[in-house]
Structure formats: C-alpha cells, structure tokens
Amino acid sequence: METIYKRLGEENLKLMVDYFYEEVFVSPIIGPLFANSEKDTVKDKQFRFLTQYLGGPLLYLEKYGAPKMRMRHLPHKIDEQAKDEWLRLMKNAIYKLEIDENFKEVLYSCFPTLAAHMQNH
In the CATH scheme, what is the code of domain 4-118? Predict the structure, then answer.
C-alpha cells in the first residue's frame, strides 16, 4: 500500500516544511512560540515527525524518541487561534508544492485532527 509519505516524496516534504516555516517564523500569532528556538532544529523535528506521521521511516523516533506531541506542546499556549493559524500556514505550504491538486486536499486532510489534538487552551 502506498503511503502519503511515499506519494509525496522526501523532497516535496522538505519543501513543504521549508515553505511552512518561512511563514511560521514571521507569523504574529504563532511565530512567538518559536522565538527562543533554533530554527534548523525546529525544521528537522518537523520533517522527521511528518515523515513518520505520513507513513515513512521512523526518523523522529530514531533521533528524538517517541513523538508524544501533545505532551511536548503542553508548555506552549495553543488556543483555537493558534491552531487555526497553524492549519492556514500548513495549507499555504501544501498549495505551493507542484503536486496533483487532488492530492493536495488529501495531504491537507491529514492535519486538522492533529492540530486539534495539540490545542490546549
């Protein structure tokens, strides 16, 4: 069975993460959550997590341990506005990719439930 990761490909996933964080780091809504973070580390964690989340190799687990994303995000105030901004920026990143339009919707559909799970306020 072909996974979303395999269909997307590693290079497109890297591009998606780059496009996403270009906007995240300057977002007035969620950018401040990353003010004290090393940008390359944040992007590496996201790439590794999404690789694993979308059905690829367990890269996050290999380097950082079990994802436990909700627990890792608990120290940060993530309200509905932050969740919606995260989803908006992810959608923007996906739609910048040169991939099939229908697949863009399939890919984006992987994220609303995940984002809602991270919301903690």
Answer: 1.10.490.10
Handedness of CA 47, 2, 71, 67 (dihedral sign): negative
Query: Concatenated DSSP letters for 69-116?
Result: HHHHHTTS---HHHHHHHHHHHHHHHHHS-S-HHHHHHHHTTSHHHHH
pLDDT digits over 102-116, tens only? 999 999 999 999 999
Mean pLDDT of 95-99: 98
pLDDT 10s digits, 11-39:
999 999 999 999 999 999 999 999 889 99
First to last CA, the chain: 37
Q: Where are the domains of the chain?
A: 4-118
